[in-house]
């Protein structure tokens, strides 16, 4: 399994590097989705020490949501976030 640095560090700039970073993120999220789908009943019940597997997944989701919010805020402050969006 790769580390966060190996997965998310972008050492080059340009369209190709950006495309690779986006592809890695999409693959990471697809892998996470498979893990979530495989969680069975009781994924949030944990009799041992530490956290239940479901809690770890929720932590990752909250982490991503937090950073997505940061990106949106920075883009809005820069004026690089469109004021109107079309999803048609």
Task: Write up this protein.
This protein has one domain. Helices cover 62% and strands 0% of the residues. It has 3 helices and no strands. The model has no long low-confidence stretch (mean pLDDT 81).
Brief summary of the model shown:
The protein has 88 residues and is mainly alpha-helical.
Give short descriptive properties of this protein:
88 residues; mainly alpha; 3 helices; 0% strand
Helix content: 55-70%
The overall average pLDDT, rounded, is: 81
The biggest sheet, with number of strands, parallel, antiparallel or mixed sense and barrel status, is:
none
How large is the count of helical segments?
3
- Helix/strand/pairing category: mainly alpha
Query: How many angstroms does the end-to-end distance come to?
Result: 38 Å
Poorly predicted runs are none
Element order: H for helix, E for strand:
HHH
Q: If you compute it from the alpha carbons, what radius of gyration comes out, rounded to the nearest whole angstrom?
A: 17 Å
User: In total, how many domains does the architecture comprise?
Assistant: 1
What is the topology?
Elements: H1 4-8, H2 15-38, H3 53-78
């Amino acid at each position: 399994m790769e580390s966060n640095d190996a997965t998310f560090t972008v050492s080059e700039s340009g369209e190709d590097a950006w495309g690779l970073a986006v592809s890695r993120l999409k693959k990471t999220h697809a892998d996470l989705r498979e893990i979530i789908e495989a969680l069975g009943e009781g994924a949030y019940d944990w009799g041992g020490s530490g956290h239940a597997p479901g809690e770890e997944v929720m932590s990752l989701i909250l982490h991503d949501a937090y950073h997505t919010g940061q990106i949106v805020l920075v883009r809005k402050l820069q004026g690089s976030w469109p004021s109107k969006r079309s999803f048609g």
